Amino acid sequence: MKKTIKKLCILLTLFTASSVLSANEKVYKLSMATTWGETASPLIDTAKSMAKLAEEMSDGRLIIRVDSANKHKAPLGVFDMVKGGQYDIAHTASYYWKGKDINTLPFTSMPFGLTSPEQYAWFYYGGGMELMKKVYDKHGVLSFPGGSTGVQMGGWFKKEIKTLDDLKGLKMRIPGFAGEIMAKLGVQVTNVPAGELFTSLETNNLDALEWVGPSMDISMGFHKIAPYYYTGWHEPASEMQYIINTKKFEKLPADLQQILVVAMRVSAYDMYIHNYDMNANAWQEMKSEYPNIQVKTFAKDIMDAMKKANQELRTEMSAENPLLKEILDSQDAYMKKVREWTKMSDYLYLKDNL
């Protein structure tokens, strides 16, 4: 009897080990839609890098197919596709969904807000991830930082902006919250598709436009016809995002969940430094080929007016949305703390060494 039991125990152990091995060898396949087209570097590169990292770290057990906007044809439909289950993951940006949920807005960037290093610190150590989960849970998706473009430039202008009066009636492409601020200052904010921007600027249908920074502006050619390049204020830490269908994520084994989270975090930081390098290289090329480009900063009275309009809009929105107020208050409190160190370290170092 004892021998029989022993044999059964051995068989059970072998069966259990075989089952675990089989489970560990199972390949999980996910699909990812991006808001970006195939040529939108470094955005599309980041999504592909994340998929490659996940596959390599999982030893081939987690495979993610990346479909660019060229394939699925709905760049601003990826949120609904992930929520509805047509795709498992998307690489996009949180502020695109402000029309669906205004609380998604601050997780990309806010005018006069946190810089990229400050915002990453807020996400992971200042309560940002918890607040983002609070916002996205009700939509059935998880959201993670997906890579930053850093400080975005304030735009290309055909004429120099010296006073507030120079903004009145100016036809400018500048979307989102920044567009609302500019509209309060008298700018005629216009939404023009990306493929028509250069022609619109060239034919005077636009007087100015905001895009990203040298890394992505150079291929658009704006610097060829608009020589005044203004420094940024509206998106100091433009963070992309990964959104994942919660039910799909929870069906993954625990180790693959962790691998996916790590792959997203690594690829996000790599996008930040990749874009930093691209900006440096693109700017060298721009200023060499077009020495007439003038880098400008908006005058103090203009900046003060922008800050005033920004605060008025924030106050209005916060009064109507308690959760938005909670998020903005969290960012403000963190910035008050972290900005002292940013000034002591980066700012004063640069001030004394430029």
Automatic annotation (TrEMBL):
<dbReference type="GO" id="GO:0031317">
    <property type="term" value="C:tripartite ATP-independent periplasmic transporter complex"/>
</dbReference>
<keyword id="KW-0732">Signal</keyword>
<feature type="binding site">
    <location>
        <position position="210"/>
    </location>
    <ligand>
        <name>substrate</name>
    </ligand>
</feature>
<dbReference type="InterPro" id="IPR018389">
    <property type="entry name" value="DctP_fam"/>
</dbReference>
<protein>
    <submittedName>
        <fullName>TRAP transporter, substrate binding protein, DctP family</fullName>
    </submittedName>
</protein>
<keyword id="KW-0479">Metal-binding</keyword>
<dbReference type="InterPro" id="IPR026289">
    <property type="entry name" value="SBP_TakP-like"/>
</dbReference>
<dbReference type="GO" id="GO:0055085">
    <property type="term" value="P:transmembrane transport"/>
</dbReference>
<feature type="signal peptide">
    <location>
        <begin position="1"/>
        <end position="23"/>
    </location>
</feature>
<feature type="binding site">
    <location>
        <position position="173"/>
    </location>
    <ligand>
        <name>substrate</name>
    </ligand>
</feature>
<feature type="binding site">
    <location>
        <position position="235"/>
    </location>
    <ligand>
        <name>substrate</name>
    </ligand>
</feature>
<dbReference type="Pfam" id="PF03480">
    <property type="entry name" value="DctP"/>
</dbReference>
<feature type="binding site">
    <location>
        <position position="211"/>
    </location>
    <ligand>
        <name>Na(+)</name>
    </ligand>
</feature>
<feature type="binding site">
    <location>
        <position position="152"/>
    </location>
    <ligand>
        <name>substrate</name>
    </ligand>
</feature>
<dbReference type="InterPro" id="IPR038404">
    <property type="entry name" value="TRAP_DctP_sf"/>
</dbReference>
<dbReference type="GO" id="GO:0046872">
    <property type="term" value="F:metal ion binding"/>
</dbReference>
